[in-house]
Amino acid sequence: CRDEKLVKGLIKDADAIIPLAALVGAPLCDQNKAEAVSINLEAIRMICRLASKSQMILYPTTNSGYGIGEKGKFCTEESPLRPVSLYGVVKNDAEKAVLDRGHSITFRLATAFGASPRMRLDLLVNDFVYRAYSDRAVVIFEGHFKRNYIHVRDIAKAFIHGIENFRKMKDRPYNVGLEDANLSKIELCREIQKQIPKFVFMESPIGEDPDKRDYIVSNRRILSTGYKPDWTIEKGIRELIKVYTIIRKNSYANV
């Protein structure tokens, strides 16, 4: 994604550009700081420079940029961005580059969940359901921390929606998550327990989570454009349980 000649050839005939190449997540970016800046930020700036003014850019960023939100207050697209990791910082900077370029849409994605050919088991819902299915138990740290969630297929649906409604949506950021899924870790465990009754979870009185994100998110802006997610947390948990009867943890599970 950092080869200018290659990228220029790939995008020259495209109507819409969706830059998906990235180092995703705080731990990976912390381990590869130079690559995180190069891939997650500099490559996006390069795409903005190479794209013609008529080409649409739909950029997936993260709502991790909200960092630690104000207690009880929903983060909207107008809320201040206070990232608590290098990952959040470079994604915020890349989003600014895309919006400054114009003729673009950015999607601030909630924490993803759902099945995929190469399962991501470092994502909270996927991880907790896997532990509930395989171990029947999990120990959680700082269980009151809240986050918003969205199924991977609804993420794909958001991009299709953005392309189809580009004229009325362009030049703005959009939170993309489930309006009824601003859940704490404890609340998420209770949702899983409804489908795996023998699942036991315990909050540790000592220790802390290195991931300090704690916020609730409003997704009203994108909902007002006609976008509607298809997957609930309940439906996603049911899907994951079925998947884990078939797919086992592998060396590429980001664990």
How would you classify the helix and strand content by structural class?
alpha/beta
Please tally the helical runs, counting DSSP H or I stretches of 4 or more residues. Answer: 10
| The CATH fourth-level homologous superfamily | NAD(P)-binding Rossmann-like Domain
Largest sheet: 4 strands, parallel
Q: What is the molecular shape?
A: globular
Helix content: 40-55%
Radius of gyration: 18 Å
Name the CATH class. Alpha Beta
In percent terms, what proportion of residues is strand? Answer: 15-25%
Kindly, what is the distance between the CA atoms of the first and last residues, rounded to a whole number of angstroms?
Answer: 25 Å
Task: Count every beta strand, where a strand is a DSSP E run of 2 or more residues.
Answer: 11
Low-confidence stretches: none
CATH topology: Rossmann fold
Q: What letter string, H or E per element, gives the SSE order?
A: HEHHEEHEEHEEHHEEHEEHH
Please, what is the average pLDDT?
A: 93
Please name the CATH architecture: 3-Layer(aba) Sandwich
Q: How many individual domains?
A: 1
Q: How is the largest sheet built, in terms of strand order?
A: 1-2-4-8
